[in-house]
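Task card 7
Instruction: Convert sequence to structure tokens.
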Amino acid sequence: MSGVDLGELHWMMGLLQNIDVGLCVLDRDFRIHLWNSFMENHSARKAQDVKEKVLFDLFPEIDRDWLKQKLRPVRQLHTQVFTHWEQRPYLFRFASYRPITGRVDFMYQNVTMIPLSSTHAEIEYVGILVYDVTDVAVNRLAVLAANRELERLSRTDRLTQLYNRGYWEECLQREFKRVQRNRAMVATLVMFDIDHFKRVNDSYGHPAGDEVIRATASALMQQLRETDIGGRYGGEEFTAILVGADAQGGMIFAERLRQFVAEHTVMYEGGEIAYSISLGVAPLTEDVEDIKTWIMRADQALYRSKEGGRNQVTLFET
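Output:
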């Protein structure tokens, strides 16, 4: 619509009034000169009530600096500018009345900003076209949410909600490579399992054993920092990748976790189940060739805790 005289735009309004697209025309001072029926219906403001009013006074939620920046090339370069709902969900916060997508609070919008020439070929006015794309946006967001949930499920252990072994080993590989690239960084692997777990299953039943596994996973999550990565290695065995922790930090974490579990019991069908865990700690050192070696060292330290009487922490030492 570049090159269209503002006067010519008035007879076009008869067409634009019945189109399901919003039209707003602004002058250089951001005063409104045209406001079609779409804008009236969704803003609950009549054209005669907004004409000659400053846009930002009527809609203070609009980011003034952002809109001015967007309109600069429209005025200076005589070019159209577009915004997509994925970049900015809306320009005007209109309520959404779509029957299919009535669950959203606002209308998602694509916006086109166009230069409107005067009789002197100067850009004195800018037209803003507003497209309601709520249905498209909501469907797109639903697909993205479903994909994210499928991705989460594919890497999550169903019983504990910790990372499963496949994804946890991917994380371990990434951490191993990160420390290899920068030897100034450190990381420590902790492996642990539940002491006498078979006895728990035999004495209380497998549902009780599942409850103990869930409680152990919860204890692990409570002790992890945001940067750490916890996972279920299999059965009653768990792991924790301590990012940025050396051997001493790993020992402190493991002992804190061991003590936490030892001091708490699991309530099941009116009874209490007391149990303990044994842990092995293996820092990532220069002589660790790959993640298999790293896991093996943590597992060996765990085995020594078992041999030493259980309910204890052992640091791997060559």
